[in-house]
Predict the 3D structure of the following.
Amino acid sequence: MPNRGSHPLPPRASGILLHVSSLPSPLGIGDVGPEAYRFIDFLADHQQHLWQILPLGPTKSGSFHSPYDTLSAFAGNPFFISPELLVQDSLLPASALHEIPALPEGTVNYAEAHTRKFALFRLASERFTHVASPVQHDAFSDFCERHGWWLDDYACFMALREVNHEQAWFAWEQDFVRRDPATVAKWEAAHAQAIRFHKHLQFFFFTQWERLRTYANQRGVKLVGDIPIYVGLDSAEVWAHPNLFVLDRQTYVPRFVAGVPPDYFSETGQRWGNPLYRWWDEDNRPVTEVYAWWSQRFRAILALVDIVRIDHFRGFEAYWAIPTEEETAINGQWMPGPGTDLFTRVQAELNELPMIAEDLGVITPAVDALRQQFGFPGMKVLLFAFEGDARNPYLPHNYTDPQCVVYTGTHDNDTVQGWFQTLSPHEQLSVLRYLGRTETSDLHWDMIRLALSSIASLAIIPLQDILGLGSEARMNTPAQTQGNWTWRFSPGALSVEAGARLAEMSSLYGRGTR
């Protein structure tokens, strides 16, 4: 049995949840440029040791740029490439930034950001081909060699998507849908430049991200990544490796899709629509290719971040399978997941598993046993705590194991201020009584104090709650397709006062500088 607690998580620390897209930027979406470094400085200067982000994969307009339905499980999001850093690497002239009109600060504008940034990226790709230094060319060649096992398929997939006007792969000509080797090879030879462009984008992203992670670690900040359990149907992985998924072998249509049954978030459940993994063959034997793919996936994300939050952890013990023809998630069924077999294999290959299990929703004793067997900390969300029961497991006085991570809320929740405004007067009074106060001003700071003062080893606060923002700053509303993933904070919002207050609380409760 794996040793509980063998993963190297910080002993007692706090940090901030903020996706890269939510950083300020003149080009419509946050990236890993100067503002990301300023945010790391804010964390380090105010005794925060964790920066939690959402998944980093390339998003698409078809799913309204959800980071949980990406075009690849391994590629980085080109939106997050910094043009300023490309200038520093002599891949863009400084004048190019001034020729692209800046966008007003505010919510993410994916369409305009794509127009502005990709014009710069194409110029950078052309310059790389013609004027990059020998050192840069060698670095690119090395990158392509090390990442070729996923990069070659991904770059071809993205180039094909472009000529097919961003249509999903299963709507392409049948020879490309079925990946006829001769057809694909001929097409790749004729479109080598387009394929190379997408490889350049990934090289730019990974180079910039590795520098950012190094800087964060040097400043005492660990990056907490997020690995979605599922991949999108319209993704390079499903196109290139359909044998890993439960698909009709003739039409490539999923036989079942992913989701969750009715719960706190939705009376009809959530029908996510992702294809399910083919964990077992027709004789109920483990499919080794799927296990090997998951080992690669964990290895890949741990090359980018220091700690991984496993989204929908309960799906590894048992997952909700919804017949494809069903419009809601109500009529699904629980199917057995890979459980101990998968994580035993991953631990044997990677040794250390610095992971956080997202164990929210319908959690059974079997799910808890799987999490505890591998020593993965679970999650405690304060916004789930105030439902009138003093035994509620999310109330801090009921925490019994320090190996957990407490949040005021997550990307799927309203902000503290927005949540409080939706409560009935009776519920609001219950919250105030628990906090030992009668006034509602600065309520978000009382909830932050509740998290920081708890026995949970890690405490992570969404930036929206530190800034005291309302529902307008909510990142995502589950089961709602439009209007999500667009919140950004404005330059100057990280005030001296907020930073000082956060630092004082973190120090007071033993989460500050060690």
In short: Confidence is low (pLDDT under 50) at residues 1-6. Residues 228 and 311 are 5 Å apart (CA to CA).
